[in-house]
Structures are given as structure tokens and as C-alpha cells.
Design goal:
The complex is a heterodimer of chains A (425) and B (437).
Chain A lengths: L4 H4 L1 H4 L5 H19 L5 E5 L12 E4 H24 L6 H21 L5 E3 H26 L8 H19 L2 H25 L4 H26 L1 H4 L8 E2 L9 H6 E2 L1 H19 L1 H11 L1 H6 L4 H27 L11 H11 L4 H24 L5 H16 L20
Parallel strand pairs in A: 1-3
Antiparallel strand pairs in A: 1-2, 4-5
Helix pairs in contact in A: 3-4, 3-5, 4-5, 6-7, 6-12, 6-15, 6-16, 6-17, 7-8, 7-9, 7-15, 7-16, 8-9, 8-15, 12-13, 13-15, 16-17, 16-18, 17-18
Chain B lengths: L1 H14 L15 H10 L2 H6 L1 H23 L2 H7 L6 H23 L8 H4 L1 H25 L7 H18 L6 H28 L3 H19 L37 H18 L1 H11 L1 H6 L4 H27 L11 H11 L4 H25 L4 H15 L1 H8 L7 H14 L3
Helix pairs in contact in B: 1-20, 2-20, 4-6, 4-18, 4-19, 5-6, 6-17, 8-12, 8-15, 8-16, 8-17, 9-10, 9-11, 9-15, 9-16, 10-11, 10-15, 12-13, 12-15, 12-17, 16-17, 17-18
The chains are: A mainly alpha (425), B mainly alpha (437).
């Protein structure tokens, strides 16, 4: 996925880039027109606690048009600040970007809840649902991080998730044990990765081609088996037990963040573990340094005695295991049967999350959360009755991703050797 | 494109160790002249060269693997396998029966049905194949054109939807005289697709945004966009609760070529014309030469005074426009109404079509017909033998995988490469320009 950078980027290589101020300004303009001028004179209520909670906090009630104006003015202020920094040739403070994003989300939420028929939503439900929806995305994008950091573009995340979902359903049903299902899911992901690794590393086939074709292959294969074996005897093959929630007493009672951190299935807990372990591994260990060297400059890595293709091979397999494991979420946590194409493009969203998160596990984590949040918001808003067409909310993650890769929302640079097979001279 | 060149060289280097080393620079610096020379002599030559042998073997191998999969999941085979050690012949016979009956049904659904009432109806499956092939060819050309300029157009799906949206809207909301209406519909479809190709093109050119990501994202945006529009009064059929448009005016539809009993429509001739047009553009025009130069080596192209940024925008608009024509073929030919499922999975199949056709216009044409046959026959197979149509996806993707890795196919069939190395060097260049763009 090398962005043939120097051919197509004459503007950015010569000093100041005005992309960030333009992007920030655009967002601030939207905020001014929609949130401030278009702000309804209602009060948006965010319920922090439900009646059944042990600890109760007061609801947050925000007057929508006032918040709209505050947010819009704050965004304009940040835009001016960013503009001034760019004009002086200084680097943009990353906190400016984060503050901007948080403010924008607050402004958007207040506006969108404010214009609804019943302007009141449960914050805890919104957050918990977002995390749940983001779990497979996070595993998928971690797989992408592991592969792309080592220089192998992984378009096959979708196929890895789907194969994991399928294998988990079948193995857990046949054995009657969910943990067997989890292992089978990881193994299926490894199998998909194995094909990706063999074709792209040994046979030097273009990685994007292999990835795209693998997705079709897995979709066809699991669809075929689902409508033959699985549908013929679904009691044996396609009725897996569900993973239980593991609730940590007291901690799980903390409002809003309690359920997302301390009341999850084992897949949910391992998601947090995977993010942290992979981040530490990539940035704090010798292994990680080698991996990143192979992805950035394989010739140099080779010269230093790192086995480039072996490193790539094992990393791609590891990525497959992670994504396959995440695929188990679909059949062991979310729904308890396998249906064809049940991943429904989540693998591609995970790919987007990985890019939006700048090829960094933590970044990918937050990007995936954002996408999970957008999806969940759609469901929540359809319940409280809103005039915003759900399709536009559904589009949001994709539009944001395009803006991100276009550099309007920060710069997103892939590993330099991504997509290029390495052959010893 | 540097990736592809590297791949070619490496491929040649690792595979030709026993053969005389390739002439210096054949793979790296002069792929474009080599290609045009080859293509000038056309299809005949490519059939006799090794690459086509690999292609045919890849198809055969994939069909065999698909057959094994059908046999393994067949109930009769499972029943016979329970007494495999007493009568192994039964299992094998059941396996053969399962696989062959599925493929016979597929053939009868795709080419020729001997049980039909009249001779014309016996060939009806063939016309179905061509009907299904039409959008595959057009969208496949869209993907192929981008490949040739070194760009990955994963966005044919969204471009088809946009094309169908524009064409459909002109078709049911404008009321123009016969002839003129259809021309406007076709043009609108091209423009719609081109618009959806322009976005990744301009972003790639101006900001370096990778076209793979942008086109994937635009696919989803297109799906939600058409889904939204079909709930608005200007697109939704009055009185219908479903997200479906009014039927297109008769003047806006492609006429059926072979009469009302066959679905084959004029769109197929558009696909033939487009194939020829793309061939001419790529091989006989200055623009085509520049596009191929950009694809072969953008740095060299820029040094030679070719605008790479302009090339990216132009080729993506052309690619999108061609995929948009596939949307026209769907909305004004086969479906006659606009729905959110108008593109089916043609956009993704188009990628495999372009890969199988090695990004050569006529190769794409025949690959489109082959996959059209799989699809049309697959429907028949599913109804007659109960074999799920998903097997077609498996066979298609296996074909592309095998074709992308000629050394693997040669290893499986134990083809001795030493005797053929001369014939295959040229074909490798083609592979690189097409497959690994």
C-alpha cells in the first residue's frame, strides 16, 4: 500500500501544509451552521445511570442551542489557533486535534439528541453498545496492524473474521464447549493468513489481489458449507453455546465505564489485553523494533541480520489468529448461529479503523470505538425518533475515513515497505 | 507500480535459475513497448503462449477442487462413505455422481439446454449467460483500465450504483422521445460512474490518498446514498412502501435483441463496443500510451513530461464511467427498476474478471463471459441439484488465485519450465502489467 508518495505529493513536500486548517475550518463551519444556528431550543438529556444501578448519578441536561454555540465558537478558536501555527511554520499540537474531535462529537450528540422527538438517551447504554460493536473491529484492525507493520497489506481481514465466526460456530457446536470454539476461530484465521502469506511472500503475488480474492473465497466457502452441512443438521453444527459475561463485583457498578471494563465476555477482556500487549510489543520490545524495521526498510533490516520474509510470515499468521479470534465474537457473543456473510463488511471497516488510527494499536482501538459509536448511535437514534436519515449516520465513518486518508484530519502514513514483496538482491 | 516491476524481476530471477538469465532490463525498464508489441498481434498469440496454458490449467484445477468440495458435502456420498471399507466403489461413484450432476446442471443453465421445447429455447441459457456477462464485462473493463495505469479500483460496486442511480433517474423522471431518451440514460450512467471515480482520482492526485481505501469507503457511501434516495419522493415509486423506484420509461430501456422471450438486450452490444473502445484507447491513442506509461513507471512518466496527476484523474473517471455503464446495463436492461441491490455483487466480481482477463480488454471480455456463464448456470444448478450457488464464488476465486501464481500451477501439473522459458518471459511481462499493477 505504498502511497507512491513523492510522485503525487508536490504540495506537502514543500513546507507548509494547509490541509489541516482547511479541514478544521470546514468542520467549524458545519458546527456553526448546524449546531449553533440550527440548534433546537430543547434540552438534550443524557441519562448517566439507569434505575437498576447500585450507584446513581444525576442526569446531564444540556440546552441544545447554547451548547451548539459554545462548541461552534470553540471549534472556530481552535481553527484559528491551528491556522496561526501553520502560518508560522510550527507543528500542530496533537491535543488541538483531540480537543477538536471531542468538542465536535459533543456538539453533534447534543444537536442530534436535541432535534429528536424524545430528546433523552442513556449514556451508559450508548457507550456500552459502542464498545460491544467495536470488539470485532478492534481485533480486525489489530490483525491489520500486525500485518501492515511488517510490510504485508492485509485486505483479507474480512475473510479472517468470517472464517473465525464460522469455525467458532461449528467447533463450539460440535464439542459443546465455547473455548474449543475460540481456539478453532483463531486457527481458521491462521489458515486464511497462511494462504495470504504463501501467495504474497513465496509467490510474490500482489498482496491486495490476494486479499480481495481471499475475501471472496472465504465468503463462498463458508456460504457453501452453511447452506449444505450447517443447514442440514443445524442442531449438531450450528447451535453454539454463548460465552458467559464475567462480572467483576463492585467495579462493574461504576456508572458508564463499569460495564464496558468490568462486565464483558472473555473475548471482550482479551480485546483490551490484545491492544495493550500488541502496543507494548511493537514499541517497547526488540521483537517490535525488528517488525517495524522490516515494514519500513527491509533491505536495512536484512543487512542487520533480521530474516525479513520469516518475520513477515510469522507476523501475518499471528495477525490471522488475532482476527480469527475476533471473528468468534459474531457467533459466540453477538448472535448464536452462523449465517452467511454475517460479518457484512466489518473487515473493511476494521481496515479503515487501522488507517484512521495511523497503523498504531492504540489509535486503531480508538478509531474502531468511534466507528462502533457511529453504528450504535444509529440504533439509539432510531429508537428516540429523529429526522436525520439513518443512512447519513451510517455514512459518517466512511466519510471520516476518506477525510483521514486525504490528510484533512491529520496525516496518516503507512509503513514505507507496505505492499512490496521483499526479494534478496 | 514499483511493486509490480520488482515482482516481475524477482519472479523471473527466482524461477529462471535454470534457464538463461533474462536480457538485462526486459522486466524493469521497457515493459510498455513489449506489451504493445504483443497486443498488436492479438489474442491468437496469447492462446499459444504459456500464460494461457496456465490460465486454462488454473480453470481446470479450480473446477476439480470445486467438484471435490461438492462431493465432500453431498449426502449420498456421506451415506456411501459409512460403508467405505466394504464397498469403496460406491463412495467414489456417489462422489462422481454428485460433482458431475452439479456441473452438468451448471452447463445446461449456462450454455445449452437439450430438454427445452424448441431449438431457440435450447440456446436460451446462452443468452442468459451473455445477459449476466454484460455488467461483468463493463465493470471489469473499468477495473482493468485502472490496473493498467497502476491503480487499484476496488470501487466498481459504488460506481455501478452511481451509474444506475443517474441513469435510472433520467429514465423514469424525464420523458423524452425514443432514441434520444436512451442516449441520455447511457450518458447519465457514464457521468454518474465517472463522478464516483473522480473522487478517488483527484484525492490520489492531490493528496496521495490511497485509492484502495477511498474506493472501498465510497462503495459503502454509495450503498447508503441509494438507500436514502429510494426513500425520498423523487426516487421512490409512488404508492410503494418498499425502497424501489418507478419502472423506467419504455423509451429509456435497452431494446431486447432477440425478441421478448430472451432477456438479452442491447447493453451487450454496448459492452462489445466498450471493449473495442478500450482496446483502441489503450493501444492506439496517445492518452492510452500515457496512461500505460504512468502505470508502468510513474517516475519515468513524469520525467518524460506526462502529467501523472492528470493521468490518475482521467483514468479513474474513465474506469468509473465504464463501471457506470454496467449500472446502465442493469437498470435499463436487466432489472428495469432501481433498487438498492441493483449492483448485486458485480462490482466485486468485476475485480476477479479483470484479473482473469489480465487487464487486456478482450481478455476481460472473455473472462466476463466465463464468469457470466458460472453465474447464470449456478442459478440453474442450485434449483436442479440443490448445490448452493456459493460454489461459483469458490471456483472463481480459486481460478484467480492460481492464475496469479503461475509457479504454483506449474508445480502442480509438473510442467517443465526449461523448455518453455523463452515463451514465458513475454507473458510474464503481461502478467505484471495486468495482474500486479
Amino acid at each position: 500500500m505504498s502511497i507512491a508518495g513523492s510522485v503525487t505529493e508536490p504540495a506537502t513536500s514543500t513546507g507548509k501544509s494547509w490541509k489541516a486548517p482547511i479541514g478544521f475550518g470546514f468542520g467549524a463551519l458545519v458546527a456553526l451552521l448546524v449546531f449553533a444556528f440550527g440548534g433546537p431550543a430543547t434540552t438534550a438529556v443524557f441519562r448517566v445511570s439507569d434505575d437498576s444501578d447500585r450507584f446513581r448519578l444525576a442526569d446531564i441536561a444540556l440546552p441544545a442551542n447554547v451548547v451548539g454555540w459554545i462548541v461552534a465558537l470553540a471549534l472556530i478558536a481552535i481553527t484559528v489557533y491551528v491556522y496561526l501555527r501553520v502560518r508560522r511554520g510550527e507543528k500542530i499540537n496533537r491535543w488541538a486535534g483531540i480537543a477538536y474531535a471531542v468538542l465536535f462529537v459533543i456538539g453533534f450528540l447534543t444537536w442530534v439528541v436535541g432535534i429528536a422527538d424524545r430528546p433523552s438517551i442513556s449514556l451508559a447504554g450508548l457507550v456500552a453498545g459502542s464498545v460491544t460493536l467495536a470488539i470485532p473491529l478492534i481485533f480486525g484492525s489489530l490483525s491489520g496492524v500486525l500485518c501492515e507493520r511488517v510490510g504485508v497489506v492485509n485486505i483479507a481481514i474480512e475473510g479472517q473474521l468470517l472464517s473465525g465466526a464460522f469455525a467458532a460456530a461449528v467447533a463450539a457446536s460440535v464439542s459443546g464447549n465455547v473455548y474449543v470454539g475460540l481456539f478453532a476461530a483463531a486457527f481458521a484465521g491462521v489458515l486464511v493468513s497462511l494462504i495470504l502469506a504463501i501467495f504474497s511472500i513465496k509467490y510474490l503475488v500482489n498482496q491486495i489481489i490476494v486479499g480481495v480474492v481471499l475475501n471472496v473465497l472465504v465468503s463462498g466457502l463458508t456460504g457453501f458449507l452453511a447452506s449444505t452441512l450447517l443447514s442440514r443438521d443445524s442442531a449438531t453444527f450450528n447451535s453454539p453455546p454463548s460465552l458467559p459475561d464475567i462480572r467483576i463485583p463492585l467495579l462493574a457498578d461504576i456508572p458508564v465505564i463499569g460495564p464496558i471494563l468490568f462486565q464483558q465476555t472473555i473475548v471482550g477482556y482479551l480485546m483490551y489485553v490484545a491492544v495493550i500487549v500488541i502496543w507494548l510489543g511493537l514499541y517497547r520490545t526488540k521483537w517490535g523494533l525488528r517488525v517495524r524495521a522490516v515494514g519500513e526498510h527491509p533491505q536495512a533490516a536484512d543487512t542487520m541480520g533480521i530474516k525479513v520474509n520469516a518475520t513477515r510470515f510469522w507476523n501475518v499468521l499471528l495477525g490471522g489468529a488475532v482476527a480469527g479470534f475476533g471473528g468468534a465474537f459474531f457467533t459466540l457473543v453477538s448472535v448464536s448461529t452462523f449465517t452467511r456473510d454475517m460479518t457484512a463488511g466489518q473487515g473493511y471497516i476494521a481496515l479503515a479503523a487501522l488507517i484512521f488510527g495511523r497503523w498504531n494499536p492504540i489509535g486503531a482501538f480508538f478509531a474502531a470505538l468511534l466507528f462502533g459509536f457511529a453504528t450504535n448511535l444509529r440504533f439509539v437514534l432510531s429508537i428516540i425518533g429523529t429526522d436525520v436519515p439513518s443512512q447519513f449516520l451510517a455514512m459518517l465513518p466512511y466519510i471520516v475515513t476518506i477525510l483521514a486518508v486525504a490528510g484533512l484530519v491529520g496525516r496518516s502514513r503507512p509503513p514505507a515497505a507496505g505492499g512490496i514483496p521483499y526479494v534478496k538482491e | 507500480m514499483s511493486a509490480a516491476n520488482r515482482g516481475t524481476n524477482a519472479d523471473a530471477a527466482s524461477e529462471d535459475t535454470a534457464a538463461p538469465p533474462p536480457a538485462p532490463g526486459t522486466g524493469d525498464t521497457t515493459p510498455a513497448p513489449n506489451d504493445s508489441e504483443d497486443r498488436g498481434r492479438g489474442i491468437l498469440k496469447s492462446i499459444v503462449t504459456g500464460s494461457s496454458l496456465v490460465a486454462i490449467l488454473a480453470v481446470v484445477l479450480s473446477i476439480i477442487l470445486g467438484g471435490i468440495l461438492i462431493a465432500l458435502t453431498d449426502e449420498d456420498v456421506a451415506a456411501a462413505a459409512s460403508y467405505f471399507f466394504t464397498r469403496p466403489g460406491d463412495t467414489l461413484a456417489a462422489a462422481w455422481e454428485a460433482a458431475s450432476s452439479a456441473y452438468v446442471a451448471l452447463f445446461q443453465g449456462a450454455v445449452f439446454n437439450p430438454r427445452a421445447d424448441s431449438l431457440a429455447l435450447m440456446f436460451r441459457p446462452l443468452t442468459e449467460t451473455l445477459t449476466v456477462a454484460t455488467p461483468l464485462i463493463l465493470a471489469g473493463l473499468g477495473v482493468a483500465v485502472a490496473f493498467r495505469a497502476g491503480l487499484f479500483n476496488i470501487g466498481a460496486q459504488g460506481q455501478i450504483i452511481l451509474g444506475a442511480m443517474f441513469a435510472g433517474w433520467i429514465g423514469f423522471s424525464w420523458h423524452l422521445p425514443f432514441g434520444l431518451h436512451l442516449i441520455f440514460v447511457v450518458l447519465a450512467g457514464f457521468v454518474g460512474g465517472a463522478l464516483w471515480g473522480f473522487i478517488p482520482g483527484i484525492l490520489k492526485a492531490r493528496t496521495g490518498a490511497h485509492e484502495v481505501i477511498v474506493t472501498i469507503m465510497l462503495n459503502y457511501i454509495a450503498i447508503y446514498l441509494v438507500g436514502y434516495l429510494l426513500t425520498t419522493p423523487s426516487f421512490q415509486n409512488p404508492g410503494s412502501a418498499n425502497p424501489i423506484s418507478p419502472r423506467l420509461d419504455d423509451t429509456a430501456l435497452f431494446p431486447q435483441i432477440l425478441g421478448p422471450q430472451f432477456r438479452l438486450h442491447l447493453g451487450f452490444l454496448v459492452a462489445i463496443a466498450a471493449t473495442y473502445g478500450v482496446w483502441w484507447l489503450l493501444n492506439r491513442s496517445t492518452v492510452g500510451f500515457e496512461l500505460r506509461a504512468v502505470g508502468a513507471n510513474p517516475f519515468a512518466a513524469r520525467t518524460a513530461g506526462i502529467s501523472v496527476t492528470k493521468g490518475y484523474v482521467v483514468v479513474m473517471m474513465l474506469a468509473g464511467g465504464l463501471a457506470g455503464l454496467a449500472g446502465v446495463a442493469q437498470v435499463a436492461g436487466t432489472e428495469q427498476v432501481l433498487t438498492s441491490g441493483i449492483a448485486a455483487s458485480f462490482g466485486f466480481d468485476a475485480i476477479t474478471v479483470a484479473l482473469l482477463g489480465r487487464s487486456h480488454p478482450w481478455g476481460v471480455f472473455f473472462a466476463g463471459v466465463l464468469f457470466g456463464a458460472f453465474r447464470a448456470g449456478g442459478v440453474q444448478m442450485q434449483t436442479l441439484t440443490g448445490t448452493p450457488i456459493d460454489i461459483v464464488l469458490v471456483v472463481q476465486s480459486l481460478i484467480v488465485l492460481f492464475i496469479a501464481a503461475p509457479p504454483l500451477v506449474r508445480a502442480i501439473f509438473r510442467i517443465d519450465r526449461k523448455k518453455k522459458s523463452n515463451g514465458q518471459k513475454g507473458s510474464k511481462n503481461q502478467m505484471a502489467s495486468g495482474g500486479a499493477a
